[in-house]
């Protein structure tokens, strides 16, 4: 073998990992998709309605609740997020369903509908005879409902930029402690796959740190502390504005007597605050009697049992219990989470 030939082989071997990485990157590439129905895309399906969703996903929960409220049956297609096992949203198979790599996705007669707010509205308009209307008929009331849905929405890209505009934007920051306890149960190599292919590399990077650091060290990372405290402060303002609306509407629901998609959107925010151990803190600091009573009514609905209680995930149940234990056994961690102040988060 000549020296040149041996050199070429060595070079090829050295380039192999980079080529494999580049090939993998192309297979896992995501691109933004507009919300609503995409009739130009056809997907294999077995039932009229199929919902690609995740038990823990904030946006998936909204859509499951709408289907339960409407009594519409659907085939559930569970898709993992890293918190429940793996980055299935960026798998080759799922990217055919949603090139944006996000859940939920509704597939209706083989055509996908993207974005949870659009899915909710789409489902509400396809409800069968006899289903209670989840959208007001009056145009002014409808516009008010849309505004309250927007105030709870989780933007697809960089939600932390929307902390002030929507309670949904403050949800990821307040989920950080729960991410930390859930990721204990996820093997490190699955998180590392996200570092290679996830469209937002910061998330797997922080998730990997959560896995390597204990809770105290994690809470000493300044940008995380800042994001959590900014999210907490922003959420407090959003809850106060919901409290005002519930008072003004006279309840029992956000727009008054009619239960609407706005109630469903906000209920997913409250569930996340509850499972992250924040809700009682907000109630205790701000009172929020209307919010407390409203959330109690939401939890009493049959749809809650069907779409939330019956769709739990064992890792998340364990992570919730672990987080409650951590808060109880590290009073300084609890105090940090509840009271630390930081500069407002500047994205
Ligand atoms: N604006 C979108 C947001 C969808 C979204 O962010 N989905 C999250 C779960 S709630 C997701 O799929 N994330 C992928 C990941 O975490 O890797 C919607 O409302 O549907």
Description:
The protein has 347 residues and is mainly alpha-helical. The chain folds into two domains: 36-125, Glutaredoxin; 139-339. 57% of the residues lie in helices and 5% in strands. The chain has 16 helices and five strands. The protein has helices spanning 3-27, 58-70, 92-97, 116-125, 139-150, 171-183, 188-197, 202-212, 215-219, 222-249, 261-275, 279-286, 289-299, 302-307, 314-329, 331-339, and strands spanning 36-37, 49-53, 75-78, 105-108, 111-114. The chain has a five-stranded mixed β-sheet, with helices on one face. β4 and β5 (111-114) form a beta hairpin. α2 (58-70) crosses α11 (261-275). The radius of gyration is 22 Å and the shape is globular. Residues 341-347 have low confidence and may be disordered. The structure holds glutathione. Glutathione (GSH) binds at residues 57-59, 81, 87, 89, 102-103, 115-117, 154-156.
Structure at a glance:
The protein is mainly α. 57% of the residues lie in helices and 5% in strands.
Largest sheet: 5 strands, mixed
**Would you identify the regions where 5 or more consecutive residues have pLDDT less than 50?**
341-347
For the largest sheet, list the strands in their spatial order: 1-5-4-2-3
The helix fraction, in percent, is 55-70%
Strand segment tally: 5
What does the average pLDDT come to? 90
SSE ordering = HEEHEHEEHHHHHHHHHHHHH
Distance between the termini: 57 Å
Secondary structure tally, helices: 16
Portion in strands: 5-15%
Gross morphology: globular
Task: List ligands, each type once.
Answer: glutathione
Structural class: mainly alpha
Q: Any idea what the radius of gyration is?
A: 22 Å
């Amino acid at each position: 073998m000549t020296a040149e030939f041996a050199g070429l082989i060595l070079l090829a071997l050295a380039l192999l990992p980079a080529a494999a990485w580049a090939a993998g990157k192309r297979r896992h590439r995501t691109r933004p998709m507009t919300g609503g129905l995409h009739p130009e895309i056809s997907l294999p399906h077995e039932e009229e309605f199929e919902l690609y969703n995740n038990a823990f996903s904030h946006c998936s929960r909204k859509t499951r609740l709408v289907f339960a409220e409407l009594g519409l049956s659907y085939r559930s297609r569970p898709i993992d997020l890293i918190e429940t096992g793996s980055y299935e949203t960026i798998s080759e198979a799922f990217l055919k369903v949603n090139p944006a790599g996000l859940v939920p996705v509704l597939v209706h007669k083989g055509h996908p509908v993207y974005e949870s707010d659009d899915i909710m509205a789409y489902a509400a308009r396809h409800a069968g005879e006899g289903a209670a209307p989840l959208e007001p008929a009056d145009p002014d009331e409808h516009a008010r409902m849309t505004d309250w849905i927007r105030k709870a929405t989780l933007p697809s890209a960089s939600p932390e930029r929307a902390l002030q505009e929507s309670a949904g934007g403050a949800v990821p920051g307040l989920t950080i402690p729960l991410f930390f306890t859930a990721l204990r149960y996820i093997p490190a190599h699955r998180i590392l796959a996200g570092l290679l292919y996830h469209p937002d590399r910061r998330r797997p990077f922080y998730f990997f740190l959560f896995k390597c650091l204990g809770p105290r060290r994690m809470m000493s990372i300044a940008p995380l502390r800042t994001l959590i405290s900014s999210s907490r402060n922003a959420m407090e303002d959003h809850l106060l504005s919901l409290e005002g609306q519930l008072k003004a509407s006279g309840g029992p629901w956000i727009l008054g007597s009619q239960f609407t998609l706005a109630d469903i959107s906000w209920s997913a925010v409250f569930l996340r605050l509850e499972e992250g151990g924040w809700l009682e803190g907000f109630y205790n600091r701000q009172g929020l009697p209307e919010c407390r009573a409203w959330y109690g009514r939401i939890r009493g609905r049959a749809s809650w049992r069907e779409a939330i209680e019956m769709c739990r995930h064992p890792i998340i149940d364990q992570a919730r219990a672990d987080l409650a234990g951590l808060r109880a056994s590290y009073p300084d961690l609890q105090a940090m989470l509840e009271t630390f102040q930081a500069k407002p988060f500047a994205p």
